[in-house]
Write a structure and sequence with these properties.
The protein has 167 residues and is of the alpha+beta class. The chain has 2 helices and 10 strands, in the order βββαββββββαβ. The longest helix is centred in the middle third of the chain and has 22 residues, at 48-69.
Length: 167
């Protein structure tokens, strides 16, 4: 683990930090993110777990800075004949996933979703963790078929196909 206490962070001029009790607000042009800093208030000596907490908070702070300045984008590709996006209406996405019914998913308020094609879904957010959780929820509706290469994949995801039965 690098010594994060020796690293200087240069804040962009468009980013503002506010501390309110145990919450740190990072505000930028894309929006604002809230981080919890309550573990700093305990006066315990520097233990290994404490160092890990500082390190994880440092990474979360870096991600928050990137999110409020630029944002995070994830692309999902629907591979297969029966897999496609039917509609994006109000706060719901309507999927056709090869079942006898459509699958509806509620979009969180901090995520922006659009679909340039029926087989491509682009998701954008300032909170990377929330974005990854939402993408994994979408991917869990249709598991990958490692024999045929069908399913819901992340863009640039490498899928190694298994060999089928032999006579």
């Amino acid at each position: 683990m690098k010594n994060i206490f020796k690293i200087n962070i240069k804040l962009p001029s468009r980013v503002k930090l506010r501390l309110k009790e145990t919450l740190l607000f990072v505000e930028g042009p894309q929006g604002s993110v809230c981080l919890d800093v309550s573990f700093f208030s305990t006066g315990l000596p520097m233990l290994e777990t404490k160092k890990m907490q500082y390190s994880s908070f440092f990474r979360l702070f870096q991600k928050a800075l990137i999110g409020v300045c630029l944002g995070f984008v994830t692309r999902l590709i629907f591979v297969g004949v029966e897999l496609r996006i039917e509609a994006i209406e109000n706060d719901f996405i309507k999927f056709k996933l090869g079942f006898s019914h459509f699958v509806f998913v509620k979009i969180p308020s901090s995520i922006k979703v659009f679909s340039p094609k029926k087989t491509l879904l682009v998701l954008k957010s300032i909170d990377e963790q929330l974005l990854k959780e939402f993408c994994s929820k979408i991917c869990s509706f249709k598991a990958l078929d490692v024999y045929k290469g069908k399913g819901i994949l992340y863009k640039n995801q490498i899928l190694i196909l298994k060999e089928g039965k032999k006579k």
